[in-house]
Amino acid sequence: MKVFSKHVQLLEDSMNEIDFIFNESEIVYHIDINLVNVGNSLVLGQTLAHDQVLLKKELNDCVVLVYIKSGNLLATRVLRVPDEHFLPTATSYEMMFENFTDLLQFKQTEETTYSIYDSKNNYIGSIHDLATNDLSVEVFPVDLNLTTIDYRYLSIGKISYANYYHFICYDLFRKEVIAKKVLFEIHFKDAALAFNLASPTMLEISSELETVTINLKKVTAKGIRVFDSYQLESHRHKHILGTFLINGARYYLHNKTSGVFLTRANPMRISGYYPNMKSRFFGKNLYIVGRNTHYAYNASGRYDYLYLGDSNKPVAKFVRPMNIRLLRRYGFFKVPISSLEENSLYLGDKKGTFAQFKA
User: Fold this and answer.
1) What's the pLDDT score for residue 143?
2) Residues 65 and 21: beta-carbon distance below 8 Å
3) Predicted confidence band at 302 (pLDDT cuts at 50, 70, 90)?
4) Could you give the C-alpha distances from 183 to 157, 199, 244, in angstroms and in order?
5) Domain-embedded: residue 277
6) How far apart are alpha carbons 341 and 145 in whole angstroms?
7) Does residue 112 sit in the same domain as residue 179?
8) Residues 197 and 171 reside in one and the same domain
9) Last residue of a domain, one of 265, 289, 307
10) 0.70 exceeded by the pTM?
């Protein structure tokens, strides 16, 4: 049995049944494997979690999957050699396919599965767990009868569903088809901009007038300039233009005096946050008092909301008792002690968090 979600805890795993719970719930989900059929998903219940595969159990002649689709918690049985004539259903992941060559074919062959075939329609292999946070690389030995001395890897195709991407390439030296997963989640973007993941390491950012391609390997905590100031002149009054995650690493597209930059995983640099604050408990609240300063481009006074852990709801707002020029940076947060269940505090605006504060 393979568990893809950290929120799932197995209670029973045998040849005939699976029992599990979500860590934040007391509901026990029971699956009689004999009742799970091919092409007919078994509804176990409802959940608010986003679409994803939770569990994969490999049997002698098939694979049993437990997954979430459109708020429904489902179980299904898929074949090791899938049916090429599969018709998508309401519980199917509607995968998108981009093929860059005639050497391989890609087909959705089960509700959560896509399969790879060669140009003569010979079956190569299947991917059952596209929609998971597991970044394991899938490798299928196959000889496509290609030879070259100029390069080793050939880009074959791209398969995607929601935030999950598989990039398919061929290793001409080892004679292997490789499926590499990338999780690409856009948290916020300006309406006039578009982000496209062209490969595991190449990101395209498009404005109304032009498109730039960025090698993600070159993006550091110091950031790199992707647009000159004049190229996004209509957006110069903003600070953050976009935030997204790639395989867990957070990236920010933001304005600076010298242009528009892309910066990786450094919220302190993005917000220009340099606090001088002290914390004291008083009554039923924690007070964090002092100077709350942001020096980033057009960021003064923007990040006044305090967050706890991974929550997307602020627990406090920075209060400025004397909102005059010389003293406007000074004030306090009033945090209820009852809400202090996490170790990390974050400062942000109403839409997201950008700077960490340790009390």
Assistant:
1) 92
2) no
3) confident
4) 16, 12, 10
5) yes
6) 58
7) yes
8) no
9) 265
10) yes
Considering the domain architecture, whether residues 67 and 108 belong to the same structural domain is answered as no
Q: Which domain holds residue 315?
A: 271-357
Amino acid identity, position 357: F
Read off φ and ψ for residue 229, nearest 5 degrees.
-55, -40
Place of tokens 């003569």: 120
The number of folded domains in the chain is: 4
Return the residue matching tokens 């998971």. 132
pLDDT digits (tens, 9 = 90+) for 99-137: 999 999 999 999 999 999 999 999 999 999 899 999 999
Say how many residues make up the chain: 359
3-class SS shares of the chain: helix, strand, coil, % to 5: 5, 50, 45
Residue 38 DSSP label: B
User: By three-state DSSP, how is residue 76 classified?
Assistant: strand
Domain boundary among 247, 265, 283: 265
Rounded (5°) CA angle 46-70-162: 140
- Please tell me whether residues 244 and 277 are part of one structural domain: no
36's tokens: 């799970």
Joined tokens for residue 82: 């899938």
